[in-house]
Amino acid sequence: MDQITVGLTQAAVWTGSGIDMWDIEIPALESGDLLVRVDLATVCGSDLHTVSGRRTGACPSVLGHEAVGRVVGVGDATSSAEVGDRIVWSVTVPCGRCARCTSGFTAKCSAVRKVGHESAESPWVLSGSYARHIVVPRGTTVARVPDTMPDAVAAPAACATATVMAALEAAGDLDGRRVLIVGVGMLGVTAAAAASERGASVSVLDRDPERQSNSCAFGAAADDGARTDVAIDFSGSSSAVQAASERLDVGGRLVLAGSVAPGPPITVDPEAVVRNWLTITGIHNYEPRHLHQAVAFLHDTGATYPWEALVEAPVPLAELASVLRPTPSGILRSSVAP
Fold first, then answer.
1. Angle between helix 288-300 and 160-171 (nearest 10)
2. Engineered SS bond to 249: which of 18, 98, 201, 227, CB 3.0-4.6 Å?
3. For 216-234, what is each residue's pLDDT tens digit?
4. CATH code assigned at 184
5. Are 32 and 137 in contact (CB under 8 A)?
6. What is the CATH number of the domain that holds 147?
7. Torsions phi, psi for 68 (to 5 deg)
């Protein structure tokens, strides 16, 4: 292993009732592992759901799965990056051998491990990004990040932007298509810009008027209630999904990406699906190619859209608890600088 091999690091640990600061011994790296110094971590909505009790997860744990950092140690020469590389890393760590992995669904690996979702009492203690260092295990997809890309732009690539890349892939060819984005938080705003870049005419719908207005800077227009070719839902609201499904024109496609918690079912008219050639599909997490696409997209559009303005100025790691709460309308991501 190169460079850092022993010593202590610090992590902000979710205990179920709050955040405690732990001193954690940096482990010896196994073959293919990376030790990464976390430079900036952004706060994803799923972490807010964890601390508010809306979703369950391992506890105690080091949360955080959107981050950017530099490699300071490698397990051996087979590692996916080198010391000094500036990288982002995927949320999922697949086995690469099960039927799901070999059929192209590594995000739904039968034995998947997830960054920011594992127990701090397991062998993978440094598994989340709300820490000074994280161990990125062998099998995790990593993408190198240009030094010219600000931390606040790069960090969301690891979850929000990569998930959007997966959602747009599921939506199909968007050139010349009418696209409705439902829910314009970080993912919705990113999807609006990405769909616009792919030649779509994009409208957005959000119950927060300020968010809806702010999305205009990312290539979107306010929804006019018209029929649409593609609807992509990031809201997770069953009522919003129902309404979007009823807006699809002939050949329309509904992509669900926000429904990650239990909610009321929606109704689907099979005859309408058949007669109108409709498609309803879902995506959860993303595949390795989507992370690389996310970094490339943010790099290519860095001068076009105000990505950095979407992220609040970082707080120190010890103040993580202060940003584990919903952000103001104009700010879509809080951040921490470990």
1. 100
2. 227
3. 999 999 899 999 999 999 9
4. 3.40.50.720
5. yes
6. 3.90.180.10
7. -135, 145
